[in-house]
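I am still getting used to backbone structure tokens and would like to learn alongside you. Label the sequence line and the structure token line clearly, so we can match residues to local backbone shapes. Would you write everything just below, so we can both look at the same thing?
***
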Amino acid sequence: MHLIIPKSYDPKLSVRETQTAIRYIRETFQEEFGKQLNLSRISAPMFVEKKTGLNDNLNGVEKPVSFTMQDMGDETIEIVHSLAKWKRVALKRYGFDMHEGLYTNMNAIRKDEDLDNYHSAYVDQWDWEKVIAREDRTIDYLQKTVKQIFKVIKHMEHEVWYKFPKAVHHLPDEIHFITTQELEDRWPDKTPRERENAITKELGCVFIMKIGGQLLSGKRHDGRAPDYDDWSLNGDIMFWYEPLDQAIEISSMGIRVDAESMKKQLKIADAEDRLDLPYHQMVLNEDVPFTIGGGIGQSRLCMLLLGKAHVGEVQTALWPDEMVKKCEAAGIHLL
């Protein structure tokens, strides 16, 4: 457990006022987000069959919550970690056309998460995915999409300021782009997390690109599953967050693997056995569209816009007793 207690913390809003603000942010953001990126809202599963290969493997060490169902024989069912792969199949199944996409209200359980101010075992995010052309698989298209998302987040800052002026946390006016290798070149003696904090504090908001592959040092900046994001065409949107004096990640996203990048990345990850799974066969046979997609943390966005000190102030989850007591003593009211 790692907990940061800001000095002289003032939550600005009462618990009930915070609940009103949460609802407003979530409802307003998803409408504007869908409109700007040409996305339609659809329903999504909370669990999938293990044998499909659809679940997000995250860093490869986290174990999903699993169970069996009375009418499904001995099939292992897994609570999703995210819908990274499922969405791409859904775009094909539901007949989405070029440059159309979907977003969904994704709820997940990540029982192996290290709990802190930003991380919870309960994950709530807008998972989204959009059909693109083969020629759209470029850094330029990726950055264009990132700028669209940043624009929507900035729009939300103004909306929240209008409704809750005493609570809004002000954001920078521009997003910057940098690669993980550029960060290592600049700060070779810092850890990846220290580099993220340093660049985000300097620039205010950054999209850190190319996450998952090996850097020149032989190390990786961070882990990424090898079978959904193309490691050369992905990244994280991060804001400098003064209340906690560190960066906060709002979105992880990227252009998805094609057949060649998936085979290459699975080989690097020593996970070529996945190639026989149904989802991976669809990618190999180009039986699913080329796509771009990601997730935007709902509670993280509420936390950012309202200047909250702990994600538990904007979502209901479970926390260690020690964390609850320390937060309560500091005026941080966990839901």
User: Anything to note?
Assistant: The longest helix spans residues 139-163. The chain is about 35% helix and 20% strand.
